[in-house]
Every structure is written in structure tokens, then in C-alpha cells.
Design brief:
The structure holds 2 protein chains of 2 kinds. Chain A is an all-beta fold. In chain A, the strands form 2 sheets. In chain A, strands 2, 4, 5, 9, 10 and 11 form a 6-stranded mixed β-sheet that branches. Chain A is globular, with a radius of gyration of 13 Å. Chain A starts with a strand and ends with a strand. Chain B is globular, with a radius of gyration of 14 Å. By secondary structure, chain B is an all-beta fold. In chain B, strands 2, 4, 5, 6, 9, 10 and 11 form a 7-stranded mixed β-sheet that branches. Classes of the chains: A mainly beta, B mainly beta. At the A-B interface, β4, β5 and β9 of A face β5 of B.
Chain lengths: 111, 117
């Protein structure tokens, strides 16, 4: 069964600090992996997409990594801001087009 | 600016009522999806559609049906609402991408928070 597990479930950091969110998956065959950001009361918005051949992708202060051998991805947030407070969802898509969602990591950035 | 809109942000219904949730996208996307999101369970796929009048069951279709009569509109129907269908409902759409890129980015609506009393 395809699964996506994210850790930690929640995280609290101080403004300006860095943090890393983890995503482990068992989706097969692998097609792509996306990280979404979901602000409270809104729908998720895509941050990055990674395909099999990519191992790093940046979007401003967000950097995603992918290790296809170990089936792990991470999302690193640099110099966090209050507006980074949100839920971050890892989504892995299989070759047939089916997407499997992780439960998300809730990040709280405090001043 | 791409847009997915949902008919209501908040909805309160009574047990046994028929409930319609509407979703409209303006991006000419082929694919549309309905999810529900519950604390600790993440997003779960209810139904999806890859073309007009086509529909496929997702992971939790029981108690729901869908309709896609036009490309831009995808409706979720609760034939007889029950309290365990109280949830946040999210609609999404995506373009069918090429074989190399895999499934396209899903664009989500703002969600409808449904409460069934």
C-alpha cells in the first residue's frame, strides 16, 4: 500500500531560525513529489515539485531535497518568518497518476 | 491568476438532508478532485474526474456521489448527510501533464467547512 509519512507532526520555532521537515514514502512506481503549504482556513498551495532525476530544488527560502534511493524528502526553511506558520504537506504521485498525501507537519513560528 | 472557487466557505446542515457542494475552475483543467480533510487524517480523496461526465472513486467514496456535466464544474453530493460527514471539503483541479513530469500540480479551492447536526 502506498504511504507517505511526515515528521515531526508539529514544530515550534523562533522567528529567524531554520528548520527541516521530513517526508518518507513507499509510493511505487514513483512519478513526482510535491511539497504544499496550507495556511489556516485556506487550500494547499504548491511550493516545489521534484521528479526522479532531481535531488534539490529551491523556491526562495524553501529548499526541497529528494533521495530516491532511500525514498526520503526534506523541506528546509531558512530564516523563518511569521508568515511561514502553516501546515506543510508532502504529496507523492505514482505513475498511474494517483497521489498519496502525507498528514502534514504543522509549523508555528513565534516572534 | 488561476482560480478554483467553491460555492460556500461554511455550511450547516441537518442529518438526512441532501447537500450539494459546487466547485468551479477557470483554468480549462481536465482533472478535478474532491477531498475531505480531518485532523490527524490528512487529505483523503473522495472522487475525481479526468473528463466531462467521467468519474472515478477515490479512497473514501461511500456516502458521496459526484457530477461533472461541464468541464469547469465538479459537484459533490451527499445524498443523506450524516454527522460523520462533518469535515473540511477541498476541491482541486489539475492539467494532465506529460509522461515525464507525471501528474500535474493540483490547484486547490479555499475549502468548505461542513457541519452536520
Amino acid at each position: 500500500k502506498n504511504q507517505v509519512e511526515q515528521s515531526p507532526q508539529s514544530l515550534i520555532i523562533l522567528e529567524g531560525k531554520n528548520c527541516t521537515l521530513q517526508c518518507n514514502y513507499t509510493v511505487s512506481p514513483f512519478s513526482n513529489l510535491r511539497w504544499y503549504k496550507q495556511d489556516t482556513g485556506r487550500g494547499p498551495v504548491s511550493l516545489t515539485i521534484m521528479t526522479f532525476s532531481e535531488n534539490t530544488k529551491s523556491n526562495g527560502r524553501y529548499t526541497a531535497t529528494l533521495d530516491a534511493d532511500t525514498k526520503q524528502s526534506s523541506l528546509h526553511i531558512t530564516a523563518s518568518q511569521l508568515s511561514d506558520s502553516a501546515s506543510y504537506i508532502c504529496v507523492v504521485s505514482a505513475g498511474a497518476g494517483k497521489s498519496t498525501f502525507g498528514d502534514g507537519t504543522t509549523l508555528t513560528v513565534k516572534p | 491568476d488561476v482560480k478554483v472557487t467553491q460555492s460556500s466557505r461554511y455550511l450547516v446542515k441537518r442529518t438526512g438532508e441532501k447537500v450539494f457542494l459546487e466547485c468551479v475552475q477557470d483554468m480549462d483543467h481536465e482533472n478535478m478532485f474532491w477531498y475531505r480533510q480531518d485532523p490527524g487524517l490528512g487529505l483523503r480523496l473522495i472522487y475525481f474526474s479526468y473528463d466531462v461526465k467521467m468519474k472515478e472513486k477515490g479512497d473514501i467514496p461511500e456516502g458521496y456521489s459526484v457530477s461533472r456535466e461541464k468541464k469547469e464544474r465538479f459537484s459533490l453530493i451527499l445524498e443523506s448527510a450524516s454527522t460523520n460527514q462533518t469535515s473540511m471539503y477541498l476541491c482541486a483541479s489539475s492539467r494532465t501533464s506529460g509522461r515525464v513530469q507525471g501528474p500535474g500540480e493540483q490547484f486547490f479551492g479555499p475549502g468548505t467547512r461542513l457541519t452536520v447536526l
